[in-house]
């Protein structure tokens, strides 16, 4: 196993700066207990404060600085009152995604005891699946334009570009993940009944890749019925893989079915490990609750646990540390303390401390 992992710590804006210390608090407890060595590089850029001082979100050598790290732990970016979202987002997070070839966006949807689901009658254990979203191409390729603008012939076209390499690598990742899970089930999101060129081709890629995974039970589902089933039968799913746009929609819908956004973690992965991967809560900087110490830190803490698991290649003491953090999150959701979004009145750091203590003691 590796010696010391070097972690870039980027709190960003708003509640990002409030939940990050709790992520680090729990990481410290876990790494101490399991004998893992982390070295933090604390970074104040990729924030709107930095933009106000420097007129750009990041220093020119950002890529060299981050490339020295094994992973990036990210809080949240954005403060629309000061900096428009397209500048803050395109000037930081979306650059990482592209330049570090983080081609997988991975999000769990899991319902915990003590967290009410908006889906009536669902209890802990009923919902437990992963969403794998293609993160670099497809519907978000930004190729196209407005033609004959201002005339009565005006039209707009935007292409979706699916490369063989881009499609195969995300499908392989999803089949691999399904194979490691107990149920070994994979659902491939498609729309080959309506999008008649690219989606049948995507289905073919899936069918080809599937031959290397005879033990994975897989099927294709059209995105419209798939959305309905997320709500009606979430217990059916194990791993779901989708192109960029469909994955974007599913990866918000899935966690929404499991309660608060304050719990949902995510990973932007470069599975080939040619550049660092990034781990961050799904939620944004939440200006409406920032500065009050009431944000739920669990999405941040869970993201940190996903980071350890990825660093350890899903095994070893890193996996044990990940599992201990998840167990501590589970018992804290059951027994408290809880933040306001879960009906409690605890402060951000009270929840962080409770989880860190459980990690140290279970
Ligand atoms: P994005 O930055 O992703 O575009 P956004 O800025 O529109 O999203 P968020 O910052 O994610 O939205 O916040 C959406 C809502 O969820 C807000 O009302 C916010 O208060 C609430 N929220 C977000 N994160 C948390 C959290 N960790 N704990 C409690 N409430 C949260
Ligand atoms: Mg925001």
From TrEMBL:
<dbReference type="GO" id="GO:0000287">
    <property type="term" value="F:magnesium ion binding"/>
</dbReference>
<comment type="similarity">
    <text>Belongs to the isocitrate and isopropylmalate dehydrogenases family.</text>
</comment>
<dbReference type="InterPro" id="IPR050501">
    <property type="entry name" value="ICDH/IPMDH"/>
</dbReference>
<dbReference type="Pfam" id="PF00180">
    <property type="entry name" value="Iso_dh"/>
</dbReference>
<feature type="domain" description="Isopropylmalate dehydrogenase-like">
    <location>
        <begin position="6"/>
        <end position="355"/>
    </location>
</feature>
<protein>
    <recommendedName>
        <fullName>D-malate dehydrogenase (decarboxylating)</fullName>
        <ecNumber>1.1.1.83</ecNumber>
    </recommendedName>
</protein>
<keyword id="KW-0479">Metal-binding</keyword>
<keyword id="KW-0464">Manganese</keyword>
<dbReference type="GO" id="GO:0051287">
    <property type="term" value="F:NAD binding"/>
</dbReference>
<dbReference type="InterPro" id="IPR011829">
    <property type="entry name" value="TTC_DH"/>
</dbReference>
<dbReference type="InterPro" id="IPR019818">
    <property type="entry name" value="IsoCit/isopropylmalate_DH_CS"/>
</dbReference>
<dbReference type="InterPro" id="IPR024084">
    <property type="entry name" value="IsoPropMal-DH-like_dom"/>
</dbReference>
<keyword id="KW-0520">NAD</keyword>
<keyword id="KW-0560">Oxidoreductase</keyword>
<dbReference type="GO" id="GO:0046553">
    <property type="term" value="F:D-malate dehydrogenase (decarboxylating) (NAD+) activity"/>
</dbReference>
